[in-house]
Structure formats: structure tokens, C-alpha cells
Amino acid sequence: MKLSTGDRWDLIDKISKETVTFGAYKHTLKDAIGELTVKPMTGIPVAIAIMYGFWSVFGSFAGFFTDGFFVRLFDAYWLPWLQEIFPGQGGWLYAIMVDAGGIESGEFVLSSNCLESFGVLTSGLFVAVGVVLPAIIIFYLMLALLEDIGYMPRLAVLLDTVLHRVGLHGYAIVPTVLSLGCNVPGVAATRILETKKQRFIMMTLLAIFIPCGAQIGIMQDLMPNLMGWILLYLIIGYFIFGYILNKIVPGKAPEFLIDVPPYRRPLLSNIGKKVGGRVRGFFVVAIPFVLLGCAIVGVLYQLGVIQFLGDALAPVFVGWFGVPKETAGPLIAAFLRKDLAVAQLDAISDLMTPYQMITAVVLVSIYFPCVATFAMMLKEGWKELLGALAVLTVVVFAYGGLIHLIGILLGVA
Amino acid sequence: MGEREFIMSGMDEVLSRIENGTTIDTIVKELSMNRSTLLAMIEFLVDEQYLEVVDLQCSCSTSNLCEQCQCSGADTGHGMAMYVLTSKGLRFIS
Lengths: 413, 94
Description:
Distance between the termini of chain B: 25 Å
Shape of chain A: elongated
Number of strands of chain B: 3
Oligomer: heterodimer
Strand content of chain B: 5-15%
Number of helices of chain B: 4
Number of helices of chain A: 21
């Protein structure tokens, strides 16, 4: 027997009357706790408190292992040992692999710490293992905890209105937060966004304005007093250029109905697997690029290419961005690894004022995605990549110039 | 009011709220209805193509972790489900 649609509904009515009890919505304590993190009045202070806690644990953990253990290990034992046993001191291979050193009173002088040595086996390993690895581990541990508790969907709901101003929706916070660990999974996570317009805006903003965990870790270690200003410039840029992109990029940014899951107890095994997998990913993706970056920059220094580029681009660096021409080297290294570039900027910090350092680090962040992110963006589509690069070029010159202008107006540039 | 009438009369109410972006808990509270009733209504709206389920991947799937993670790649990213109005849904409320 085949029932008509009307008959089916009548049957449903009949069954539901006999089997289902309809009651009014009852607000439970669990709902109330859940709402505290979603409603703006209470949710924003809670979000700020969580972010502050996140930041404090991140800084303390990374600082404890880097300053308390790895700096001593690398500077007191690893560097002197390598300087002694590696053959050909003063030669080009020695400079690239161990220590570029310096010339004082006409004599070759060895570096006293791993950050200034610029060698693949010294600076490269120290940045990757000594500085970035502790930062990455604690970042992914905290992120996995927030994910498994069920806080991330609530943060998405809380930020939904704000992110709609830049053409995205609340769930865009997930690629954004993932990018704070590494831009590569962040770019991949833009697939969760619904429209091409949203994916393009998200991918572009991530590539330009979101520093990766490695970069944040090294900034926290080397220039903690400038971190706030650097991040402030990046956050402001994220929203200014997101707003502009939302206005000029054609397409839709639809609203969503979101079903937020309840809070739940995190499983240690699950967190362990997530953190372990992501840290393994860092070892595979990042460390070879750090070492390669060190080697390429070392070779370019030896060949005089960095000097040449610095001289050729001096009018742009000095005149437009207000930074010394010596930043050419770190900017080239930034294409391979941003953390390495920040370390190299710190090594030439004597040549810069604090404001120039802020400008230089912001430029390192926004001027080009690292090569791993670049490859990931290419995977998402070459049209999107070209569009993002076009936006990026405009942003670098406009925003870099604007930061310089602000510095001039404030009298600090 | 029977379930059928409730669904038919409440459908435009729910759809118009979705147009402005909201959560399931908010609609449940605003319309003072049972959560399971609303979920059934949403399922119906999805079946009738007024709503579309947004395919959310778990964040771990972006780093080939889904085999290890509990979500098994099928979860809607941190246990969250998202729905968007289709053109049929937009036509209905306009």
C-alpha cells in the first residue's frame, strides 16, 4: 500500500501523539555554563581570560625550556665543540655550516652564541630545536585541550558577528588558530568555509597576517617587549584588509545555523595523539626548511648576493619602509622560514631602533608566505594563489608604508 | 497543535532566523521548543533541500591525523554541525 504525503503526515501525527511528549524548553545548569562562553557580555571576558592563560602558559613553558636548557646546551657546549672540531675555520664551508663569524681588527673572530653564528648546524638547529620545538609542543597541547573540551565551537559563535565584517563566519577562527601553530594546516582548513569568496579571503589573510607558532615562539624568546606591538599591527591589518577584501571580492558570505556540542571531558590519549601527530608534522615539514634556509642564506652571503640585494633595494627598504638595508638577508630567509628570519633580524638588532625592529618583523610576517605555505596555497588552486599574491604585494607596500608613516608621525621611526 | 502543523508553521520562523545567523540553542530558547523537535525540523528542512549541511572537516584531517583522532574524519569538526540556507530556502522566506 502506498501512502500519499497527507496520509504520511497524519500517520506521523498519530504516532508522535502516542509516543512523544512535548514539553517546554528547560534551562539546565549545564546550558547556563555553556551560555557563559557564548554570550558576548560574559563570553568576551572568558575568551580574554582563556587567551591570557594560553599566552602565559605558552610563554612560561617555551621560555623555561629555551632559556633554561637549550640556550645553555647550544651556546656553552654545542657551538664551541663544533667550532673546534669542524675543519677549515674561516673557509666558506665552515661559514655556511658552523660559523660565519666576523672580522675584528683585521682578524677572523668566532661568534659567541648560536643566533649570531648563522651556520646550518648551529643557528639552524638551535632555532628549530632549541627555540621553536618547545613553543610548538605547548601550543599544540593547549589547542588540543581547547578543541577536546569543546571550547572552539563556542569561540566560533562568539566571534561570528566580528568575523562577518571581514566576509567570514565564526568558524573561520579554526583556520586562524590553526595557523597560529603552522600556516600549512591553517590554509588546508580553509576548506571548511562555504564559498569561494570566503576561502579566498581566509587564505589571503592567513598567508599575510597570521604569524606561525614558530615565529611567535622566537619572538617571545628574543623580543618579548616588542611582541605586543607586532601582534597589534598584525591584528589591525587582519581586520582592515579583511574588511576591504570583503567589499571588493565578489561572491557571497552566507549566515549559518550552528549546533554547538556540549562541553566534555578531554581524553588524554586523544590529546596525546593529536599533539604527537602535529609535532611529527613539524619535524617533517619545518626542520628541513630551517636548515635549507640557513644554507641558502649562508651561500648568498658568501656570494655577495645579500649585499647586492641590500644595496639595490636600499631605496625601498630605507625610503619607503624605514628599515636598514641589512634586512634584505632576513627577508630572503623569511621565504623559507619566518622563525629563522626573525632570529636573523635579532642578530642585527644593533643596527635598528625598536620601532624599526617592529616594522622589520611585521614586514617579515606579511611580505611573503613561507615556501611550505606557498606550496599548500598552490595546491588549493593557482588562480587563488595568484590573487592572494597580488593582494599581498599591495598590502606589503601599503601597510609597510603606513607603519613607517605612523612611526614618522609619532617621532619614533 | 500537531507535529505536522507545528513544523509547517514554524518552518518559515526557523528559516528566517537562520538567515540572520544563529545557534540551535538560541532558537530552542527563543521559540521555547524542545531541542529534539527542532533537530527533527532541521532534518526535515535538509531533506526538503531548504537547508544544506556544511561539510565541516575536523581540524586534524588537515594534517592526516583523522585515522588516529576519535572523529574518524566524519565528525563535523569538534562535534559541531553547521547548516546554511539553500536558494530554495532563501526563496521560501523571501
